[in-house]
Design goal:
The protein has about 240 residues and is α/β, with parallel strands linked by helices. It has a single domain, classed as P-loop containing nucleotide triphosphate hydrolases (Rossmann fold). The protein is built from nine helices and nine strands. Helix 6 packs across helix 7.
Length: about 240
């Protein structure tokens, strides 16, 4: 059984970090729509060319194009055992389109990382990135002044000013928070306390996924069914 995971949560909840961590430790791809959009444009695919034409006009890529790009990505061989979605869907309309894309596939497990707004503002307003390579410093990581990857200077993101952060959270509440209500009624939906240390959050995510009954993950990062049979193996 494929392990298809969708991470939800507001800016600063840590969903990108947890999605990357889960994908890496479970040997499935993390699919970010921003990344696959850039890949499709660079590869010159039909949909990528359509997206490029839209972006060249200074317009936002529409949902139909994004769904087409996502369809191409999840049909690749490395995603046959599952994937982690980060950054899509952002609206209920996109979620409905994703449901159509998932028809005939193994269920989508949805994890919502919950963090109170004051904590989100504190995290985002203190978040640093490397001005050389763009890698973010771990939140709450201490008083580091240099990038752990390249040694570059750590600076605040321009969109992490407190006033900007609060506006971003308003946009999230207006556009993306209804996704939680859209998915909440599903038996594969779980909420996680994102105020805990990252290791505890990661452990809770793993436990939440297993509790859905959709499937678990064995010690070598392969999806298994409820009887412990590895995907693709003979029972």
């Amino acid at each position: 059984m494929a392990l298809n995971l969708l991470m939800l949560g507001p800016p600063g909840a840590g969903k990108g970090t947890q999605a990357e961590r889960f994908a890496r430790t479970h040997n499935i791809p993390k699919i970010s729509t921003g990344d696959i959009l850039r890949e499709a444009v660079a590869a010159g695919t039909d949909i990528g060319s359509r997206a490029k034409a839209t972006m060249d006009r200074g317009e936002l890529v529409n949902d139909d194009v994004m769904i087409g790009i996502l369809r191409e990505r999840i049909e690749r061989e490395d995603a046959c055992g599952g994937f982690v979605l980060d950054g899509f869907p952002r609206t209920v309309a996109q979620a409905a389109a994703l449901d159509g894309l998932m028809a005939g596939r193994d269920p989508l497990t949805v994890v919502d990382i919950v963090v109170p707004e004051p904590e989100l503002v504190r995290r985002l307003a203190s978040r640093l990135i490397c001005e050389s390579c763009g890698v973010g410093a771990p939140m709450g990581g201490g008083s580091e002044v240099a990038c752990a990857r390249c040694g570059g200077k750590l600076v605040q993101r321009t969109d992490d000013d407190e006033a900007v952060v609060r506006e971003r959270l308003k946009v999230y509440h207006r556009q993306s928070e209804p996704l939680v209500e859209y998915y909440r009624v599903r038996p594969t939906f779980r909420s996680i306390d994102g105020t805990q240390p990252p290791d505890r959050v990661a452990a809770d995510i793993a436990a939440a996924i297993e509790s859905t009954g959709v499937g678990a993950v064995d010690g070598v990062g392969k999806a298994v069914d409820k009887n412990g049979v590895r995907q693709g193996a003979q029972p």
